[in-house]
């Protein structure tokens, strides 16, 4: 709860940053903020959204809440380590808010590429490095905790192939964290040493090489997109079968797809460096490995669609969020192909096309998934329902606004508009596209505000929820509504041999 | 040179078309049945209240849905490889220009066959507008391949030739390259596409493409003085 609230607040702050960034770009010239403030806002938007929202909201927030409940345990394995993890996260939060103070602005962009980040024009790199370290420490503590919890505390009979997909994806994401975070920590530590203590890892004049940073940085920071998106795949897989009232199609291949994504995610970081000057053969090799990731992700999309086949679909708002998320992810995936095809990437690298693409995936597929999950598990956490009409209204606004915004952003990128540009020459097509994008962004913003209002309203005056309101066989609903503080307590639930988290009672009808 | 305005834009555009066709086909294959299922199998009281529980998986179908995407991506990657080869192989007889980036402008050195600098053009930083003086515009001949050797004095920048849709980063301590060719005389945008600080969005220049005879006259002409004096002002 603490985790999620912190994440959600930063999500809102970073959202405001994003909106300011968008308003600045609406028309050529500088209207809203100056160049330096723009660069700060864009950095803050990126760091906030990626590290607080897209990683922490579902892993920290939902993971801590749902993991023990879903596997039939009392709590996570190391509750005090968990508290430490939250405090590290909270401290990072304080540092993040400190960057709001003028003079503390970080203007490196979230990637922090040297030698630019070593330049005085980049702002306080140290603050960025410390934020990354605190978040990294927090992530590793969480990852260890979750892995141990999953391995040692499952209810008897709750086997690998009876594990909820959210648990599979959560554990897979934390395996990536455990392998990858040290790499990021290393990269930013070297950055810190270079800037403040006179080492020369990245200084070509003294035998260093700035591309070393990019390699170490992306070795973690590409896999991290799967850290961000995998648990959301878990949400889709939990929500869609419940409201299609039938078992998930192809459960086993879904599990293999999750672990295939985890493995392949470490073999495609060079696609972020297709134009960085690395040798031609590397670019071609990584073009193949990058496109390979489309196969397991494709399996997941097909299976979600086939789950709808011969179902009895209820359009509750969380189902809308989940299906909307899958459609956003479909577009996000298909527009990822040209970025993996090195020939096309040479023409669109670092353009708004890239930004539009990753907002379909990292922006919307993830956000819709998390918001859907908030509605879905709202009764379990609070004992009340999320207001259904506000859920539907916010969904349609967010979905429509996001599509207008990000689709046209990709078109602008195809026309050559570079990213991270507060200003651009008055090319008529670009200007038109930017104006419509801003309208889309405003609609999206209104949707998020309505969703937030829905949370407050649900907490204050939501309708009281019944036990297992969605009639799901999954274990987390066995503890009653709202969930007790110690989950399943000292008596894990009985897991029968024919039990499966997606096998609904054939007679049971969701009203 | 036929109708093609720029290379490697032509091949890039072909690759984009191929991708777009593949993507739209996949989208339709997934979205049409998806939307149809959502419509057909929605909950209807008294008629369709519970989903079908027998169809939990289908080995053949799942295998097919793995193999077809696998073949598709292998095709796309291999196709992209063939285009990439053309994009990165500098044609014989290309003219070489050395481009050096700085915060936030470019220096263009025109080299002869022996690598000696014939002429230098420097584009300065224009913080408030997108207009350039004539002497700040690098000039290139129409219809002739240009090889650009790229490097940077300070941070990482990127050299993006808009009409040719080709980018390559400019990394301090390294020399990278790209090549392009523009066939139609005119003025074309060049932007920086790697974030480089406050002036990033105003790091630009305009390539002036002229007929070859005019280019030779310009290259060996005598407007050297204006450029030199400008050089001192903006390069620092």
The percent of residues in helical segments of chain A reads 55-70%
Using only CA atoms, what is the Rg of chain B? 26 Å
**pLDDT under 50 segments of chain B (min length 5)?**
224-236
Major sheet of chain B, described briefly?
Answer: 6 strands, mixed
State the oligomer.
heterodimer
Globular, elongated, flat, extended or rod-shaped: what is the shape of chain A? globular
Q: What's the CATH first level of the largest domain in chain B? A: Mainly Beta
Rounded average pLDDT of chain A: 92
Pfam family, one (chain B): COX2
Enzyme class (chain B): translocase
Keywords (chain B): Copper, Electron transport, Membrane, Metal-binding, Respiratory chain, Translocase, Transmembrane, Transmembrane helix, Transport
Subcellular location (chain B): Cell membrane; Membrane
Summarize this entry quickly.
By secondary structure, chain A is mainly alpha-helical. Helix content of chain A is 66%, strand content 0%.
Protein architecture, described:
- The complex is a heterodimer of chains A (511) and B (236).
- Chain A has 511 residues and is an all-alpha fold.
- Chain A has 16 helices and no strands.
- In chain A, helix 1 runs antiparallel to helix 16, helix 5 runs antiparallel to helix 7 and helix 15 runs antiparallel to helix 16.
- Chain A is globular, with a radius of gyration of 22 Å.
- Chain B is built from 4 helices and 11 strands, in the order βααββββββββββαα.
- Chain B has 2 domains: 72 residues, no CATH class; 126 residues, Cupredoxins -  blue copper proteins (Immunoglobulin-like, Sandwich), CATH 2.60.40.420.
- In chain B, strands 1-9-6-2-3-4 form a 6-stranded mixed sheet. A 5-stranded mixed sheet of chain B has the order 5-11-10-7-8.
- Chain B has 236 residues and is an alpha+beta fold.
- The radius of gyration of chain B is 26 Å and the shape is elongated.
- The two termini of chain B are 40 Å apart.
- In chain B, helix 1 runs antiparallel to helix 2.
- Chain B: Belongs to the cytochrome c oxidase subunit 2 family.
- Chain B: Its cofactor is Cu cation.
- Chain B: It is an enzyme of class 7 (translocase).
């Amino acid at each position: 709860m603490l985790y999620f609230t912190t994440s959600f607040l930063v999500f809102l702050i970073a959202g405001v940053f994003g909106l300011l960034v968008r308003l600045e770009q609406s028309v050529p010239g500088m209207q809203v903020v100056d160049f330096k403030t723009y660069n700060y806002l864009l950095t803050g938007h990126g760091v906030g959204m990626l590290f607080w929202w897209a990683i922490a909201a579902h892993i920290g927030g939902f993971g801590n809440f749902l993991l023990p409940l879903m596997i039939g345990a009392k709590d996570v394995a190391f509750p005090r380590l968990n508290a430490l993890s939250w405090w590290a996260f909270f401290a990072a939060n304080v540092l993040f808010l400190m960057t709001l103070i003028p003079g503390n602005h970080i203007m490196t962009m979230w990637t922090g590429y040297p030698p630019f980040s070593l330049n005085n024009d980049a702002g306080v790199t140290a603050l960025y490095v410390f934020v990354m370290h605190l978040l990294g420490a927090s992530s590793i503590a969480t990852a260890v905790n979750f892995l141990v919890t999953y391995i040692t505390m499952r209810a008897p009979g709750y086997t690998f192939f009876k594990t909820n997909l959210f648990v599979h994806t959560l554990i897979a994401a934390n395996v990536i964290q455990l392998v990858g975070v040290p790499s990021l920590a290393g990269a930013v530590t070297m950055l810190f040493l270079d800037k403040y203590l006179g080492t020369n890892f990245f200084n070509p004049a003294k035998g260093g090489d700035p591309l070393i940073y990019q390699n170490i940085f992306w070795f973690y920071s590409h896999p991290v997109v799967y850290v961000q998106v995998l648990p959301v795949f878990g949400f889709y897989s939990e929500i869609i079968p419940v409201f299609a009232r039938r078992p998930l199609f192809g459960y086993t291949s879904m599990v293999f797809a999750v672990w295939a994504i985890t493995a392949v995610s470490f073999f495609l970081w060079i696609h972020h460096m297709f134009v960085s000057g690395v040798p031609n053969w590397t670019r071609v090799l990584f073009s193949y490995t990058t496109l390979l990731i489309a196969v397991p992700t494709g399996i997941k999309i097909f299976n979600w669609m086939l789950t709808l086949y011969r179902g009895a679909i209820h359009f509750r708002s969380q189902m809308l969020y989940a299906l909307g998320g899958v459609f956003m992810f479909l577009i996000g995936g298909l527009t990822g192909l040209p970025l993996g095809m090195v020939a096309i990437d040479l023409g669109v690298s670092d353009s708004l096309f890239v930004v539009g693409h990753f907002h379909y995936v990292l922006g919307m597929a993830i956000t819709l998934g998390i918001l859907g999950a908030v509605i879905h598990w709202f009764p379990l956490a609070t004992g009340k329902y999320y207001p259904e009409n506000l859920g539907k209204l916010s969904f349609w606004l967010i979905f429509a606004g996001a599509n207008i915004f990000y689709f046209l952003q990709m078109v602008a990128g195809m026309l050559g508009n570079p990213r991270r540009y507060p200003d651009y020459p008055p090319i008529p097509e670009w200007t038109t596209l930017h104006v419509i994008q801003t309208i889309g962004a405003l609609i999206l913003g209104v949707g998020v505000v309505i969703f937030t209002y829905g949370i407050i309203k649900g907490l204050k005056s939501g309708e009281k929820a019944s036990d297992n309101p969605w009639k799901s066989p999954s274990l987390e609903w066995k503890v009653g509504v709202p969930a007790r503080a110690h989950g399943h307590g000292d008596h894990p639930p009985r897991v029968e041999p024919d039990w499966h988290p997606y096998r609904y009672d054939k007679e049971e009808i969701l009203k | 040179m036929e109708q093609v305005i720029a290379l490697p834009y032509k091949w890039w555009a072909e690759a984009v078309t191929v991708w777009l066709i593949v993507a739209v086909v996949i989208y339709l294959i997934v979205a049409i049945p998806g939307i149809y299922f959502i419509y057909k199998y929605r909950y209807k009281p008294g008629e369709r209240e519970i989903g079908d529980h027998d169809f939990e998986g289908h080995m053949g179908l799942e295998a097919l849905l793995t193999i077809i995407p696998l073949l598709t991506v292998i095709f796309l990657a291999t196709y992209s490889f063939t285009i990439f080869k053309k994009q990165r192989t500098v044609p014989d007889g290309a003219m070489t220009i050395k481009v050096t980036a700085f915060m936030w402008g470019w220096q263009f050195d025109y080299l002869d066959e022996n690598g000696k600098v014939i002429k230098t053009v420097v584009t300065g930083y224009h913080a408030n507008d997108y207009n350039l003086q004539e002497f700040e515009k690098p000039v290139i001949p129409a219809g002739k391949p240009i090889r650009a050797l790229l490097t940077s004095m300070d941070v990482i920048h990127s050299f993006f030739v808009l009409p040719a849709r080709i980018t390559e980063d400019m990394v301090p301590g390294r020399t990278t390259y790209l090549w392009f060719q523009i066939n139609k005389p005119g003025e074309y945008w060049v932007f920086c596409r790697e974030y480089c600080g406050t002036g990033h969005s105003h790091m630009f220049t305009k390539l002036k493409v002229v007929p070859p005879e005019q280019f030779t006259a310009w290259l060996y002409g005598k407007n050297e003085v204006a450029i030199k004096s400008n050089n001192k002002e903006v390069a620092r």
